[in-house]
Structures are given as C-alpha cells and as structure tokens.
Amino acid sequence: MPEHSLKSFDRLPWKERWFVRGRLASAPLAEMASRARGATLLDVGCGHGALVALLVEGHPERQVVGIDPDARKIGWAQASVGRNPRVELIACTIDTLAAERPGTFDCVLIADVLYLLAPSVWREFLAAARRLLRPGGLLILKEAENDGSWRARKALWQERLMVWLLRRTHSSGAIGFVPREVLANAIRAAGFVLDETTGYAKGYTTPHILFTAHVP
User: What pLDDT digit, counting tens, does each position of 142-155 carry?
Assistant: First the structure.
C-alpha cells in the first residue's frame, strides 16, 4: 500500500496501526486488489479495512463496502479508511447483506475467512457471495492452503494464538486449512466458474492460495 494510503490509519491506537501494517506485509492483499474490477466492490471480513484501502485508492469511480461480524474491527475501520465518502462499513454477516442487497456488486473479495468456519457451512457462505454478485460478477478469494509444509503448520499455530489467546480474530469454533482442491471444489459447488488458482507461498511464511472465479 502506498505510504499516503497508510496515513488513513494514523488515527488508530499504535497496536491497531501495527496490526494493519503486519496484515499488509504478511498476505498478498495487493495481488487481490490488482485483480478487482467494477464500480461496486465488497470486502467480506474486512477487519480493520486494509484491503478496502487498497481497493479504493486511485479508483475514484469505485464504491467499496466492507463487512465484518466483529463490531470492534468495524469501529477501527470507520475511524480510518471509513472516513472516505466512497467507503461504507457495516457490522453484519454475509447472509444478512445478501438478503438486503442481492445482485448489487461487480466484485466480491474474501480474504482469510473460510478457515475460521466449519467446512459444512462453506457452500452456504459462498452461495451468499454469489447472490450478492451481478451476472458475470467476479469472486476473488484468498485462503491459506494445507500443503503439508512447515508454512502450513506455522500458520495454523499462529492463527490458534490469534483466536484463542490474543483474541484478535473471531472464529465459529473451527480453525483449519485444507488442500487447494478442496477449496476449489467448494467454489465450484457454490455455482462459480473457476478462472485462476495461484499460490503465494514464496516470500511469505504462510502458504497463501488465491482464486478468482465468476458468476456464469
């Protein structure tokens, strides 16, 4: 993220500022943002708003919505990137938004959410994302994959620490990574056409996997 974009987070307490910087350094959010298209975008599980800031920067034609069930994080986002009039931030679930705004968005982005949910609800979750998109709309989804590497083991223990001890992240009770094909099958099962699968392990200590798919 350009340094002037990070300035929108300067109003936050130092712990939250460093959390945002760490999030940007440890995950390929810029790669997600570079694939986004359209005028109406949704970031599901937006947290503090790091990806929202990337999506809105340099795109005056865009309206970006960020949602997160954690009202605390939405508060941090509203105090920073949420001051931009082209950004809307809501404390809610994807099901709630899908019921209120079906077929509204050109692009839905989801970064590191599925691993916090039981796999049994993935299809329902992704089906809600599909309902939010217009015909031909784009899904961009990033997770960590279980590739059997030390990166996967490290990432799992790191996330357990963030959820159970530090309580920086909320979970439904399930924390776990799966092979990339399991994720790809879940995307297809929700009615998407899978366009791209790209691994981003090199240069990171987490085995990131990025998918793009579209509504037929």
Answer: 999 999 888 888 87
